[in-house]
Specification:
The chain is α+β, with helices and mostly antiparallel strands and 486 residues long. It has ten helices and 24 strands. The strands form eight sheets. It has a five-stranded mixed sheet, with helices on one face. The protein has a four-stranded mixed sheet with strand order 9-14-15-17. Helix 2 runs parallel beside helix 3 (145-163) and helix 6 crosses helix 7 (377-389). It binds zinc ion (ZN). The site of zinc ion (ZN) has 3 residues, from loops.
Length: 486
């Protein structure tokens, strides 16, 4: 190569590299941030009359629909990544239902299954989507007809939300509403603790009775914070508000009614408060359950007068909706939010059952007469512990993190205690964060190790189905995944 040619080549390379650099930097400087898109839709998942209502200790057939059940679906798109958030008016959903719905969504929309969060509200007035007629302990089940129907309706709701994707602004807010959440696990005066179904004395009692003279103090603090993520058309009307509050449920329905409890009423109340909330496409409010395994709506210290059916849940729903609506007026809106998700199934073990407990269960079954339609606690737990003792080896319990801009959601597939949600908010690296329980599966109550020491309903084998370290393992995994997406 001659010197001239070499100089020519070097000159050309310089020119080429400079031009390339200029193009790249121009693009970096000029490229607008991809605007966030959001769409939301609801699918009706009300069962046929005659299905078995699961909220009580014994199931019974539903004879009326007070208000319809829904799968409320929100889809977010940052131009690269899509997330789907679904809240169903159900007591909970078996892992297999959630896996089937998440896979169907991936197949039909391309949204990866790991990016789909499906949770139940914990309304006690819905039919069974958790499992079979008896409580059993497995991570994989063949879906019932109702579960298949819910899977189809969830996927359709997500597809309809995708059709409604449009440019959106996003905001985060919180408002404390302590007046509706009360810890339901109580220390009682010495000698006042009744024996549990296993014939042992616990240190705390669940639902000890409002105004019980033996009350000493509750075994923890409730989480009073309603967290919400709001999406609106730029400068305009709301698209959706995804909220979470740590309230078990309210109840007070006519027996044998189907109802979405306060969760559904909250969504309707927030919609009524929006100008144009019912316009086309309608505003979709959503209320997920935060971490409410140990907190309900009963004021144990100051008993409240008995209310008419639906009166109390309407009161709670409208009060919370009003407070969230006021908080919405003060939020700061942003027009972009990078999205990310992490999903893991953990090696959490099923609750181990000691041989003495199996002996107790067999003896209890042998001596207790079975009376049709009558719940017998020792007999029920005798069955549960024996089924738990032969549970499938792995739980496949799922935890998930969604990053939505500078907001982080962590999920558990259990009835998680208030202090776990508060701990997650304190320890994860996002300033704006909250937890959603009953997500991507249902494994019963998940007390913290401290609560296992205290005993009580939520810790009994058969109400609690996972090892006592489950809450620690899930927290560790959630914090790791939150750090990954930060
Ligand atoms: Zn519950």
């Amino acid at each position: 190569m001659t010197k001239l040619m070499r100089n020519y080549c070097i000159g050309f390379m310089r020119y080429f590299l400079l031009a390339l650099f200029a193009t790249v930097s121009l693009h970096a400087a000029d490229a607008p941030k991809t605007p966030l898109m959001a769409g939301a839709a609801t699918s009706n998942i009300t069962p046929d009359l005659g299905g078995e209502v699961v909220g009580g200790f014994l199931p019974y057939p539903c004879t009326n629909v007070h208000d319809e059940l829904h799968a409320r679906c929100l889809v977010l798109d940052d131009g690269k990544t899509k997330l789907a958030l679904v809240v169903c008016d159900l007591l909970g959903m078996h892992r297999s239902l959630c896996v089937a719905a998440r896979e169907l969504i991936e197949k039909e929309t391309g949204i990866p299954a790991a990016n789909v969060l499906i949770s139940g509200t914990h309304t006690h007035s819905a039919v069974n989507a958790i499992g079979g007629p008896v409580r059993f302990y497995t991570s994989d089940m063949e879906l019932t007809d109702f579960q298949k129907f819910v899977v189809r309706r969830i996927a359709d709701g997500v597809r309809r939300a995708i059709h409604l994707l449009r440019p959106a602004e996003i905001a985060f807010g919180t408002v404390d509403v302590p007046e509706h959440v009360h810890i339901r696990r109580w220390f009682l005066q010495d000698g006042k603790m009744p024996p549990n179904p296993f014939g042992k004395i616990d240190k705390v009692k669940m639902n000890p009775g409002a105004g019980n003279a033996a009350l000493v103090e509750p075994a923890g603090d409730p989480d009073p914070t309603v967290s919400f993520i709001a999406l609106r058309e730029p400068g305009g009307r709301l698209i959706s508000v995804y909220s979470a509050y740590s309230l078990h449920y309210v109840g007070g329905v006519n027996s044998a009614d189907i109802s979405a409890d306060y969760y559904g009423m909250y969504c309707e109340a927030l919609k009524r408060l929006q100008a144009g909330g019912s316009d086309d496409p309608p505003f979709v409010a959503m209320m997920a359950n935060g971490t409410s395994g140990d907190a309900n709506n009963i004021n144990f210290r100051n008993p409240q007068p008995r209310k008419k059916p639906y009166e109390q849940m309407r009161y709670v729903a409208e009060d919370v909706a009003g407070k969230v609506n006021d908080a919405l007026a003060k939020v700061t809106w942003q027009n972009s939010a990078p999205l990310a998700a992490r999903y893991r199934e953990l090696g959490v073990a099923w609750r181990k059952i000691d041989p003495e407990l199996i002996t107790w269960a067999k003896e209890t079954e042998a001596r207790t007469p079975r009376i049709q339609g009558k719940a017998d606690l020792p007999l029920a737990y005798a069955g549960r512990v024996q089924r738990l003792a032969v549970a499938s080896p792995e739980t496949k319990a799922a935890v998930q993190i969604l990053r939505i801009g500078d907001i982080c959601i962590g999920t558990t597939p259990t009835e998680t205690f208030a202090e776990t949600g508060v701990e997650f908010r304190k320890r994860n690296p996002f300033a704006k964060s909250f937890m959603v329980e009953l997500a991507n599966g249902y494994y019963g109550y998940m007390p913290t190790p401290r609560h296992f020491e205290l005993g009580g309903y939520e810790t009994w084998p058969g109400t609690n189905n996972l090892e006592p370290q489950a809450s620690v393992k899930m927290m560790d995994a959630l914090l790791e995944m939150a750090a990954e997406v930060k």
